[in-house]
Amino acid sequence: MTRRSVVIGAGHYLPKRIVENAEFEQTLDTTDEWIRSRSGIERRHFAAEGETTSHMATKAAQAALDMAGYAADDVDAIVVATSTPDLTFPSAATMVQAQLGMTKGFAFDVQAVCAGFVYALSNANALIASGQADRVLVIGAETFSRIMDWEDRSTCVLFGDGAGALLLEATPSEGTNADRGILATDLNSDGRHKDLLYVDGGVSTGTTGYLRMQGNQVFRHAVEKLASTANTALGRADLTSDDVDWIVPHQANIRIIQGTAKKMGLPMDRVVVTVQDHGNTSAASIPLALSVANARGQIKQGDLVVTEAIGGGLAWGAVVLRW
Ligand code: ACO
Predict the structure, then answer these.
(1) Known catalytic residue: 280?
(2) pLDDT, tens digit, for every residue of 249-307?
(3) How would you classify the pairing of strands 211-213 and 197-199?
């Protein structure tokens, strides 16, 4: 028998304010047409003043708990993937723990930028597999609007705010790839590429800083590394892309999403796409897409799902799970 991490709840939260591409035409030398055709993004949500990553994470987590029918104190651990925590410390995860009213267990953040959610899922799965936790909330939450340089048209039109959460539960299983739950993961990073995508502030500068990105360089790495990590994770579960029901990719750019699907030999009707409505919400994009697809009835129990992401570091990875 194997202890599998099975998804028993999914939830998401998007801030109320929706900003259409056309709004940027008023302040920047850009067009709706450029943003749409280069990225696939049509609109994004921005957090209200005072609305933070932990607030959004808590709302997404509560929705996941509600779907599963559990209370916060039924959870053993909270893992929050974020690069935009409310404060340098304590972790956003401990803030979520307090806001949920959870008085036991443990909580910590994972920081792998846009790959954060696959890193968090992989770590949560290890906690469950090793018997250290039976139920883990895995959350991706970001307020990238706080680290945008609003004069840099090459970055500020691409990102959005939001949060998504999954509740994982340890479930005794056969140990075959027909089991529900997380079947395989693959994580990678290569710090030599740190200058392609970073925030130019932090403890060393005494400022929060702004996101800086050599978008076309990141793009060049993305398709190849994403297809490769997805295929590696599938191989670890003794599966191939023919077995996949849904790819749920990091939602950064429709052209990267299409390129990766093509490289994996998968048609776009097996890919969950939300980038048009959310923009790039970094570590929140995959759990947001999973929760939206689950709510729409796209992803059904028993479906084989592959999530994959790449972001600053560079850091990238994939998770294969049966919903
Ligand atoms: N409006 C109009 N023109 C623009 C804009 C804009 N908003 N932004 C840039 N341009 C211009 C550039 O100045 C450039 O002009 P030039 O040729 O005169 O110099 C031209 O458009 C082309 O720029 P590129 O950067 O080559 O455009 P590209 O086709 O590569 O698209 C994009 C840019 C959308 C950023 C793309 O490269 C991309 O998606 N990259 C990957 C992003 C990503 O996946 N990041 C990883 C995750 S994010 C994370 O980890 C936080």
Answers:
(1) yes
(2) 999 999 999 999 999 999 999 999 999 999 999 999 999 999 999 999 999 999 999 99
(3) antiparallel
